[in-house]
Amino acid sequence: KILVIGAAGQLGSELTKALTDRFGSEHVIATDLNADAKEKFDFCRFQVLDIMDQESVRSLVKNEKITQIYHLAAVLSATGEKRPLFAWELNMESLLFVLELAREFNLDKIYWPSSIAVFGPNTPKINTPQYCVKEPNTVYGISKQAGERWCEYYFQKYGVDVRSLRYPGLIGYKALPGGGTTDYAVDIYHKALNGEKFTCFLREDSMLPMMYMPDAIKATIDLMEAPIENIEIRSSYNLAGMSFSPKDIYESILEHHPDFKINYEPDFRQQIADGWPDSIDDHFARDHWGWKPAYGLKEMTKDILENLPKFFPIKL
Ligand code: VAH
C-alpha cells in the first residue's frame, strides 16, 4: 500500500492519480496538510496529515501496513526564501523522518523528489552533468542537495531503496502555480485563456530546464518500477524534458492567441533563476532505466490550452 505525503501539491495531485490508475484506489492513501484538498481526491482515500506530526505518520504507516512512501511535501524555492529556517526544517526533518520510518518498518521503496535547484551559479550551465560543482544559493536548493546526500547514505548504510529525480521546472494544468520560480510558466496559460495581459517575473531571455507534467509522471513511475539493480545512482538522477525562456513560451501561445500580451518585471526570483542551469544532461537516466521525454514546447502548449479550461473555468 502506497502513502503519498503532500498529495495536493502540483506534482502530488497528478502523481497520486497516476498511482491510483496503476495500482488501484484501494492501494493508495493520499494525504496532505490542507483539509480542503479532500474534494480533489474522489478517486482514492484521502486524509489530512501533517508530515511534521511524526506520531500520526508513524501510526498510519503501521496501522495501514504501508509498503511505499512518496514524500512530496516541501517548501519550494521562492517561498523558501521568504521563510528560510522553516523551509529548511520542513524539507529536511521530514525527509530524515521518512528515511528512518523506511529503515524501522523495512518499507519496500521510498520516492523523494530532488530538483535542478541543487545546482548553483558556478555549475556549468549548458548540458549540466550529473556530477559537477553544486553550490546552491537557495534554502530549497540546499535542502535538496543535503537530502540527496541523506538518500544515498540510507541506501548504502541501511539498504533503504529510496529513489529520486532532479526535476526541472514542472508545468501542469491541474494545479494552480505554487511558490516555485518556474511557476511563471504555469500562470502564463491561465492569463492567456482569461484574455489578460501577463506580467512575467523573469527576464524574457531566462532559459530554464522545464518538463511537461505527463513526462514527469512517466519518469517517476518508470524509475520506481525499474529493477533495483538498474538504479545505479542513489543521490538523484538528472532528468531533462525541454528548455525554454519566457519569450519562447509566450511565442508558443501567440500561435493560438494572437492578441495575448506580455510584459517583463523581474523580481527576486530572477536571481534564483540565474543560478540554475539552462539545460541538463540526463544520459544516465536514459542509459540506466530507459528514460525518454515525449513532450516539447509546442505539444505542451497545445495540450494545456485545450485542457486547462476543464479544470479552471475561464472567467468570461
Ligand atoms: C521551484 N518548481 O521553482 C520548483 C522547481 C526547478 C524548479 O524545483 O522551486
Summary keywords:
3-stranded parallel beta sheet; 6-stranded parallel beta sheet; single chain; 316 residues; binds (3R)-3-hydroxy-L-norvaline; 14 strands; alpha/beta
Write the layout of secondary structure elements.
Layout: E1 2-5, H1 10-23, E2 28-32, E3 45-48, H2 54-63, E4 68-71, H3 77-82, H4 84-104, E5 109-111, E6 114-115, H5 139-158, E7 162-163, E8 165-167, E9 169-171, H6 184-193, E10 198-200, E11 208-212, H7 213-225, E12 237-238, E13 242-244, H8 246-254, E14 262-264, H9 269-274, H10 283-289, H11 297-311
Parallel strand pairs: 1-2, 1-4, 2-3, 4-5, 5-7, 6-8, 8-12, 9-11, 10-14
Antiparallel strand pairs: 11-13
The site of (3R)-3-hydroxy-L-norvaline has 12 residues, from β9.
Task: Note down, in words, how this protein is organized.
With 316 residues, the chain is an alpha/beta fold. It has helices spanning 10-23, 54-63, 77-82, 84-104, 139-158, 184-193, 213-225, 246-254, 269-274, 283-289, 297-311, and strands spanning 2-5, 28-32, 45-48, 68-71, 109-111, 114-115, 162-163, 165-167, 169-171, 198-200, 208-212, 237-238, 242-244, 262-264. Helix 1 links the parallel strand 1 (2-5) and strand 2 (28-32). The longest helix is centred in the first third of the chain and has 21 residues, at 84-104. It starts with a strand and ends in a 5-residue tail after the last helix. The chain binds (3R)-3-hydroxy-L-norvaline. Residues 76-77, 115-117, 140, 168-170, 180-182 line the site of (3R)-3-hydroxy-L-norvaline.
